[in-house]
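thought: fold this chain, then report.
action: predict
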Amino acid sequence: MSTPEAATQTTAPTEETAGHAEETAGHGDISVGVQGASGSGEATASATRITPGNALRPEDIALAVSRGTAKPSEDVAEFALRLGDDALVLAQRLGHWISRAPELEEDIALGNIALDQLGHARSFLSYAGGLDGRSEDDLAYFRREHEFRSVEIFEIPNGDFAVTIARQFVVSYYQFELYRRLTESTDATIAGIAAKAVKEVDYHRDHSAQWVQRLALGTDESRAKMIHGFKVIWPYVDELFRDDELTGRLSESGAAVQPSSLRADFDRLTGEVLAEAELDVPQVQPAPGGGRRGLHSEHLGYLLAEMQVLAREFPGASW
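observation:
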């Protein structure tokens, strides 16, 4: 977990690329000012910084938590834990593609997306741990399966490349809508994390959408694999947008949004890409889910065993 944050920042899109993506996304300019951990904000702040010239890093959040200048409520901590677990589990899945992707450029691209997700996980987990004094590493490496709050779409196996692209397509469009709304959170730290993350997942959207079109409009074999990929992934889409008591309370306070409120924009924007790729939305039965309550498939246990083994074998080790 304690990887240099600079590594995650190298994957963010340039302003020119981000601007082009924003125009095509239909949401206009997302470079909005957000409040920093201290509670003060400036309207001129870019979407990737809480104040001009100061990127919001996991280390900054951990320091603010230790000093008592940023402390989440119990509800906000649980919400941050959910988002952190989503990003952490996805980062672990995507890391598996390094040296296995169909071409060298994709090795690098998927590795960079994994690093972005890891950066988001570190930020959210650092903040969530502020409730009871646990660090990001404590939460990542020393919890058991039932203590994780990620939804099932993140933990299912990668499958072939088309299945991974189908998941990336769904997840990136979902995360973009979520983080875009969270930049207006009344919780300053959540808003700061989201403002940095939304720029990065905007690139993830573009990457996945290009691959969907490339595979769907390529050869007969690549098209068949892309159709199959969406059939594998689509049963897990509904769980991303399910409301519960926690999101209801946070929505009322302005700290978060109801997941169901993201669905219309998600459907519209993903539908546009699928239409261009001459693909239909799969008609499948939704999976039961339960990840937000700690109910997971058998796949998460194997993933955590691999991810946590070193920290558990050598607790407290450093290098």
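thought: worth noting. Residues 2-53 have pLDDT under 50 and may be disordered.
final: tokens above.
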